[in-house]
Amino acid sequence: MDKIASFLVPGCIALVLCFGCFRRVPVFSVFTQGAKEGLENCLSILPTLVGLLMGISMLKASGAFDVLSSFLEPAMKSLGVPSDLIPLALMKPVSGSGSTALLTEIFSSNGPDSFTGRVASVLCASSETTFYCTAVYFGSVNIRNTRHAVPAALAADAAACVVSVLSVRLLLP
After folding, report:
1. pLDDT tens-place string over residues 15-57
2. Domain ranges of the chain
3. CA pair distance 36, 47, nearest whole angstrom
4. Model-level pTM?
C-alpha cells in the first residue's frame, strides 16, 4: 500500500500532462498562467488576512476572550458545556491555530479520553474558522457586504458547541 501511495501523486501529474499533450494544450503556458492568477489572488486577499491576524492578536493580548468567557460561563454551564471549553468555543471561529493550542491545553489538563477532551475533539471537528474563511472567500472575489453569511456561520458554530456536548453524552458514554 505504501508503494502505491508513493506513486499516486506523480502518476496523477503524469496523467494530466499526457492528457494535455494529447489534447494539444500548451501545458507549460497554461500552468504558468494558472500560477500567475493564483499569486494575484493571494496578493488581493493579503490585506484582509493581515487585518484579521492583527485583530486576533489584539483580542488575545487585551484579555477580551477571558472577559467574554467569564461572562458566558453561567449560560454555557446551564447548557452542559464544561467551563474549560468556553475559550475553545470562542477561539475556534476566529483562529484555527489558536484553537489547536487551546485543544492541546485541554488534552494536557483533562486528558483526551475525558468527557471534556472528547467534547473538545468533537467541537473542533464540527466547527469552522468562520472569520478566516469569510475573509479568504469573500475577500478573494472582492465582496464587502457578507449579508447573512457571518451570523449564519456563527449560529452554526454555537449549535456545534451544544450538539458536541449532546453527541458525546449520547454516543460516547
Report:
1. 988 998 899 989 889 989 999 998 988 888 788 778 877 877 7
2. 46-171
3. 19
4. 0.70
